[in-house]
Amino acid sequence: MTTIPLFHVLILSSLLFLIGFVGVVARKNTLFMLMSLEVMLNAVGVAFIGAGSVWQQADGQVMFVLILTLAAAEVAVGLALLIRMQNKYRSLDIDLLNQMKG
Amino acid sequence: MLLASLPFYQLLSFLLLITFGKKLSWQLAAIISVSSMALTVLASTILLFELSASENQILNVNLWHWFDLNHALGKSQINLSFYLDGLSAVMISVVSGVGFLIHLFAAIYMKSDENFARFMAYMNLFIVAMLILVLADNLVLLYLGWEGVGLCSFLLIGFWYHEKNNVLAARKAFIVTRIGDTSMAIGLLLLFNSFGELNIAAVTTLVQQSSHSVSGLSVEQTNNIYWIALLLLGGAVGKSAQLPLQTWLPDAMAGPTPVSALIHAATMVTAGVYLIARMHDIFILSPEVMNYIAWLGAITLLLAGIAALAQTDIKRVLAYSTMSQIGYMMLALGAGAWSAGVFHLMTHAFFKALLFLTAGAVIYALHHQQNLFKMGGLLKKLPFEGSLFVVGLICLMALPGSSGFFSKEAIIAQLWSSNTAGPLLWWCAILGALLTSIYSCRLFFLAFMGTARFSDKTHSEKNILLRSALIILALLSLFGGLIPLDLTLVFPTELAASIPEILEPSWLHTLAILTPFIGILFSWFYFKKYRTSRVVGSEYNLSASESRLVVFCRQGLGFDSLYSLLFIKPYQWLAEKNKHDVVDQVIMLNAWYISLWHDALIMMQNGSLRWYLAAFGLAIMLLLGVSFL
Amino acid sequence: MFENVASIEGLFYFAGLVAVIASLKVVTGNNTVHALLYLVVSLLAVAVCFYLMGAPFAAGLEVIVYAGAILVLFVFAVLMFGLGADETKNAPKSKSLANMMGAMLLAAALLVEIVVIINNAEMQQSLQANVISSKAVGIMLYGPYLLAVEIASFLLLSGLLAGYHYAKPDATGGDL
Fold first, then answer.
1. H/E/C letters for each residue in A6-44?
2. Is CATH 1.10.287.3510 correct for A7-90?
3. pLDDT tens across B233-282, in order?
4. Whether A18 contacts chain C with CB within 8 A
5. Which CATH class is domain C2-131?
6. Shortest CB distance from A79 goes to which of C57, C73, C156?
């Protein structure tokens, strides 16, 4: 049993998550949005690991591993798309991609 | 059975003509339409013999079951079935006989028209509708025919639709008769509601049963019958161009002349008379309405006669004369002289068709000149048409010996002692007869006597078929009064005949017979300038008086402007004010509300990914907030 | 709390603080490469947190996969972009080490922390006590979570294919 209270772990997790969320929403540069997304995924990982350690279950780490693979795949696709976008628009400004408006 | 097939010859011909229309040559179209008409004549002749040979003077045939009407008193079957008795026999002989002659005339008269097939198709359709109207054994079928003839009237008045006036006249005729039709429809509904039947014979029996029963009619029933009679009268008034719905008939003369002869003189306009005669059992029970009918007829008779005095168009004179003659029929019906009214209907159909067709021939000969003041001296130039016209006018004036004499005298004779008419209406009828003879003389003097006031050569149509049609009509007009018309089986309850106790002064008949002669004598001197040849210089100086009174009369005694002021102007004002449709605005509020949401949603769908993410976050925040609550 | 600085909790809070600061710098930064470095620091700090929470396996994965593989992917992408115009414009003119100082300082702080943990036997003792072994994780992964692992492998495969397809130059790739 660890001495770190779950409450504090979750606070850390939420802080990181929110920072990442703010980054995703506020930044116009798509690369930064991707990075902020990583921060958010990480925050979720913290929450899982914290919970797993409090209840002494391996599931938390399993989830983390899955999140890790998800992040890897997401980054691969996202960066490939960014390369595409850079080729097409000569910019990474996400607001250029608004042709799908109603 | 022959009766069942009666309207179908024409229907077939109509279908053929309307389908193949322009592909048919004149000969083919004429043969199809006229021969189908001839078949109808043949069939109706045989039917007349069958009818007179039959036991109770009634022929009945049921074609097929149409639909059921449910009523508290039980189910009423509405069938497509025909009913032939003395009254409808008169009508079918008029419709088929006069219709045939007019078809024959029209086939030649309209020969050069490029839409000849369409014209004949409409004429055929009209005959179909008219036969259905006349033969219908229930009021629903009758209403079908009623609307059918209205439709054909509309189509035929507006036949030359390239001219605006014709279209306007057609529209006016349609709308004005529609008012009457609506009233009639309401009347039928009320009738069904009160008696649970729309079959004519059944209604008649029901009405008679309840009136002859010991308790008699209840107050409510009497009240209902009063309203039914009044509403049916409304329909009849609209169709027969009586006051106050008479304004459409003079304008309807915009149609081709055979149409005026067939529809607006001989057959359709008398449908109202037929309706009242057919439903006489109901009308008898409501003496007030009978009285209204008599007065309506009398007033129309006089007003139309006065208006006819001032017309300059030969066809409009005849149109007003038609109104006035139908006024006579209405007067007769109102007085309870049913068979006299129907008799006049028949003779009027003969001589008015003759007059219209002859007028058509004259107009044709004068290169479509209809203005009386541009005619004159035609008796010498067109002796054939002129002499036939004289025959027609003699009948119209009811000079002794002509068919008009018999029928009109029959009407006038029954007025004095009738319960629902009386001496005052008798005097109206006499005055009407006087007016009739005066305007007839004026018409004759203007068109056929005096100096020729036109420069073109006349070209009389010498086609043997056309001429024979006119001659047959003339013979019918002269001797139609001798046709024995026994309608006692249809009208067993002649009111006038049953009440002989009021003493009639002995001079009544003499005066009635003398009246037309007084009119002729009067006009002989009064319209002297019309009949004598008078040429000042090289100009034809005769022209219609333009005094206010004359113009007022010429425009139909101001009914058009009155209606325009009373109905059309306020309606147009309302339409103008309500251009944007208040009700529509309320409905559009929905559309506005939806489009508001649409705009809001479009604003949300701005394509910006970051905006979506923010919305995403907001939604999660809200959800979490809700879960905390 | 200060007396407990050297305890597990204290170290956890410290590492968490580092992670938060580094994440903030990632989010607010203007320079791509700097932001990437801050991201590395943030990930390392989170790895320390994992370690302190008794998940050394996860911490290791975090360092190897996240800070190692994924971040390298980012760096390659940035290299391919040749640094977008808007980013280079905002970047500081000087290329001195001072610009990296923040990230370096934070990383150094984490290093100190890790060294403290490793050197402190008592702490090692308590960490060992509630560690969840990688063996347990492995059993779980290939036991009840086998299906999830399979799905993850498919995900990775599709990520690979998608990355390959999208990143292809237009000339050889044709239309999107």
1. HHHHHHHHHHHHHHHHHHHHHCCEHHHHHHHHHHHHHHH
2. yes
3. 888 888 888 888 888 888 888 888 888 888 888 888 888 888 888 888 88
4. no
5. mainly alpha
6. C73
